[in-house]
C-alpha cells in the first residue's frame, strides 16, 4: 500500500485506529470453541464489526505461533480474508523480526510476498544490514522498534550513546538506510512525552503507537506531541477492543469500544489547528 | 535439557558443533524436490548423516516461515524427528524473538512447549520484561543476542552506554534477570577478539557462536578467547555444512565437512591445557 492511500483512508474514515488481533483461545467467547477454526471465526467477526472504524489490522504473530500449524493456518486465513474483503485496510504483521541479511530476506519474503502483509515490525538490535532487506520491497513498510511501550524500554532504549538516547540513535541512523522512505517506527503511547523530541528527528514518518488502553497510554497526549500534518500516527488497541464480552455479542462489544476510539480521533482531527 | 547433559554430550562426542538447518529449496539437491516434503527430506538426511559428530541442531525459523504452512509443517516434523530419534541433541529455535511480557510468554510457549525445543534465541532490545517470560521454563535455555556476527553489529551493539559497550551492558544487565541461570548468549565468531572481555562478565555461560565458515570466523580464535573449563561454546555452521554437493551424495558431503570440524574440535579439546 502507498502511504498516500493510507492517509486518504484516515481522512475518509476520520480514524487512525489499528485493531490488534492478539487472539487468545483462553479469552475468546466459549461458544466459538465449537467452530472448526475458532481463531479465524473470532477474527472474522471482529474484522466485520470494526472495519469501517479502523484503518488497519495488526495480528501479533506470537499469538498464532503459540498454536502451531493451527495458528499459522488461522493467520493465513485472517490476512487473506482482510486482503480479499477489505483491501483498503493497512495490514501489519507484528513479528518483531530481524536477523543477518540473507535471513532477514527470508522473513521479508514470508511476510510481504507469501502472506502479503503491507508491513512488518522489525527489531533494530542487529543494525543496518538486518533491516535493509525489508526495505527493498516497494509499497511495503518496515516498522522499526524505536521506543516500546513496556517497562523494559528503559533498560536499553533510553540509555545514552554518544550524547543521545539509544532510541534516538536508532531513529537517526535508520534515516540513512537504503529504502528508508519505507520506514515507520514503533513508539509506545506510554512514552508520549518523548514524542516532541522524536518528531524533531523524524518529522514526517508514520508511528505505530501501541499501549493506549490496557497499558495505560493516553490518546490525547500522543496526538498532542506526535501528530503531523498528514496525521502520521497509527494508534493500536488490541486487548482493549477484543475482550469486552464473552457472550454472543462480543463483536458488538468490540465495535462499541472501537467506535468510542474513532469518535475521540474524529474529535481530535476536527479540532486540531 | 540440563546444561550438565549438554556438557556430558560434548565430552563424549569430543564436539561442540551445532548444525544450522537453514534449509533453502533453491539450494538443496534438485532430486529432492520430487519428495512430498523436500525440506524435511533434506533435514532428515543431514541429521542422520551428522548426528554422531554434533551436539545439536539449529533451524532458523525464517527459512521455514518463508514457505508458509508447508514450512511450518517441515519445522514441526524436523524437531519431532530429532526429539524422537536423537533425544540427546540440544535443539535451538533460532527465532530471535522478543516482545512485551504477555506476548513473549506466547513465544516461549510456542517454542518450549508446543515444539519442544531446548532453547530459543531472543533479542534484548525490549529489555528485562521481554526476556524474563522465556526464563521461567525449567531446563529450557534462552539464548540472548549479545554481539552478532554481521557487520550491522557495529551499528548499535558496540556503541558505548555509561562507559560500556551496549553488548556488555546486555550481558551485565541480564545477569540480574529472574531465571538468569537459564541464559546463554549469541556471540559471533567474527568477533572473536571480543571474547576475553566477554568472559570477564560471563565466565561460565554457554555461548552460541555463529559465523565460522561462510561468514569467515575462526574456530581456533573463538576457542582461544572463549572456551571455559566446561567448554562453554556451541559453534554453529549452517551453509558451510549443508550445501557441499547438489548430487545424491549431499548428505555424505555434509558429513565430511562436519567431520572436519569435529576433528578440529577434538584436536583443540585434547591439546588444551
TrEMBL record, chains A, B:
It is an enzyme of class 4 (lyase). Pfam families: OMPdecase. Pathway: Pyrimidine metabolism; UMP biosynthesis via de novo pathway; UMP from orotate: step 2/2. It catalyses: orotidine 5'-phosphate + H(+) = UMP + CO2. InterPro entries: Aldolase_TIM, OMPdecase_type-2, OMPdeCOase_dom, RibuloseP-bd_barrel. CDD domains: OMP_decarboxylase_like. It comes from the Bacteria. Gene3D superfamilies: Aldolase class I. The gene is pyrF. Belongs to the OMP decarboxylase family. Type 2 subfamily. Keywords: Decarboxylase, Lyase, Pyrimidine biosynthesis. GO terms for molecular function: orotidine-5'-phosphate decarboxylase activity. The keyword Lyase applies. The lineage of its organism: Bacteria, Pseudomonadati, Bacteroidota, Flavobacteriia, Flavobacteriales. Residues 16-254 form the Orotidine 5'-phosphate decarboxylase domain. One of its GO terms (biological process) is 'de novo' UMP biosynthetic process. This is Orotidine-5'-phosphate decarboxylase. The keyword Nuclease does not apply.
Amino acid at each position: 500500500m502507498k502511504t498516500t492511500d493510507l492517509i486518504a483512508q484516515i481522512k475518509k474514515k476520520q480514524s487512525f485506529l489499528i485493531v490488534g488481533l492478539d487472539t487468545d483461545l483462553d479469552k475468546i467467547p466459549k461458544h466459538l470453541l465449537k467452530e472448526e477454526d475458532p481463531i479465524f471465526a473470532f477474527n472474522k467477526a471482529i474484522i466485520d464489526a470494526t472495519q469501517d472504524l479502523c484503518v488497519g489490522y495488526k495480528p501479533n504473530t506470537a499469538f498464532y505461533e503459540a498454536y502451531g500449524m493451527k495458528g499459522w493456518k488461522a493467520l493465513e486465513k485472517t490476512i487473506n480474508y482482510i486482503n480479499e474483503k477489505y483491501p483498503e485496510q493497512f495490514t501489519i504483521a507484528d513479528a518483531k523480526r530481524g536477523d543477518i541479511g540473507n535471513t532477514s530476506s527470508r522473513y521479508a519474503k514470508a511476510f510481504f510476498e507469501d502472506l502479503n502483509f503491507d508491513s512488518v515490525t522489525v527489531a533494530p538490535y542487529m543494525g543496518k544490514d538486518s533491516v535493509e532487506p525489508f526495505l527493498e520491497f516497494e509499497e511495503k513498510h518496515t516498522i522499526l522498534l524505536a521506543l516500546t511501550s513496556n517497562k523494559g524500554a528503559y533498560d536499553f532504549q533510553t540509555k545514552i550513546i554518544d550524547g543521545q538516547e539509544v532510541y534516538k540513535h536508532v531513529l537517526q541512523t535508520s534515516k540513512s538506510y537504503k529504502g528508508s522512505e519505507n520506514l515507520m517506527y514503533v513508539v509506545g503511547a506510554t512514552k508520549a512525552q518523548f514524542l516532541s523530541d522524536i518528531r524533531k528527528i523524524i518529522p514526517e514518518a508514520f508511528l505505530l503507537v501501541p499501549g493506549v488502553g490496557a497499558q495505560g497510554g493516553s490518546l490525547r497526549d500522543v496526538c498532542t506531541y506526535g501528530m503531523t500534518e498528514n496525521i502520521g500516527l497509527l494508534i493500536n488497541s488490541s486487548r482493549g477492543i477484543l475482550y469486552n464480552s464473552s457472550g454472543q455479542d462480543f463483536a458488538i462489544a468490540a465495535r462499541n469500544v472501537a467506535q468510542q476510539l474513532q469518535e475521540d480521533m474524529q474529535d481530535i482531527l476536527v479540532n486540531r489547528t
